[in-house]
Amino acid sequence: MGSRTRTVVHGVEDAGRRYRGWVIGLLALGGCGSIYSNPYPPIAPPPAPSASAASSPASSSDPDPKQHAASILDRAKALREIAENAIQLDGTSGAAKARQALQTCHADRRTCQSNEQGLEPLTKTGALAGYADYLTEPLAGFIFSRAHGASLPLDLRPILAAEDDVALAETMAKQAMDAAQQVADRHAEEQRKLAAENEATSAAQDACARDQPACKAKCDAGKEGNYCFAWAVRLRTGTTPKLADARVYFQKACDAGTVSGCAALPGIDQQLQAGAANAETFWASLAEIADDLTQKEYAAQKLAQVANSPSRVRALETLRSVNQAAVREQLCPAKKAFLQVSSAADLQQRATAHCKDHAPTGQGLSGAWVPLNAQCSQVFASPCP
User: Fold this and answer.
1) Would you give the DSSP letter of residue 309?
2) Where are the domains of the chain?
3) For the chain (length 385 residues), average pLDDT per consecutive 10?
4) Is the pTM of this model over 0.70?
């Protein structure tokens, strides 16, 4: 064997000895299993998708955003129609006014919600329907545009953000409809009772037309509600309506169990309120005319004290003629207009208080200004044809 061959063989033997030594050392440290172990760590499995990832818009189970927005608008439109139907079914002016007030509420949300709670005892239908409209008012423009063929806006966020308000408004609109149905049921029952007692109230009105004292006496006895109603009608519709007295007898009829009397109370209350407003208007006009005439009468009294020449006498006569014409043409018509909406007792009470506390003033011959209390009372007491 050549030297080169021996060198290769010896190199192989040395490598084998080194390999056996490495294996023996490995066995000593890790046992036989270490020979077959993977020197690389296992690859971890991918993590499970999180809940947020599962519900992301990219998930195939989510609705299309445009379809979602369209659904919200459809729901808002439907509940606003329910609110309108509830107002129509309720049929009272109070419900319609409450709905309008809340629908156009421009205060902060807490204030508008407080307004709804305050109106609910007065008209549950109007309060609930109005607040349902208020909650969906930000979507009204989108609903209108979509109803007229317009596409959804590019930015859907205002619509999607209103979904919780739409859900709350749906509940309130349904409650408004339930409340309206209760009002309608009560009204139907009232109409049935009115029809049932119509014959009795008609007979009482005929009896009152024949004998008014007897009619009033039967009512005052406290048992004949139909006669109280008939007497109230006569007071209300007389040549000079006595609304305050009529209200008293409508209440007596209602207390006696007459449905007609109870049904008449809201109407007579409205008349009284309107009459009170008219009375204030007519009184203001009457007081202004009376104050002006009071000062002119005072001027005539001062002139009479110094009417010591023919020219002054003629001036005095002219002033008195003017004042008398003012009584006929201004003061008396103003008093008559006031008495048509009020009473002589009310006129007397107002005139007394006015002349005592708010009488006009006049400048005397000495130059001092004095209240014309006596002259004011005389003017209001002026006789009228």
Assistant:
1) S
2) 65-187, 199-272, 275-380
3) 42 46 40 40 44 40 83 96 96 93 92 94 95 95 93 94 96 96 92 86 90 90 87 87 89 91 91 86 94 93 88 91 93 91 89 94 85 94 90
4) no
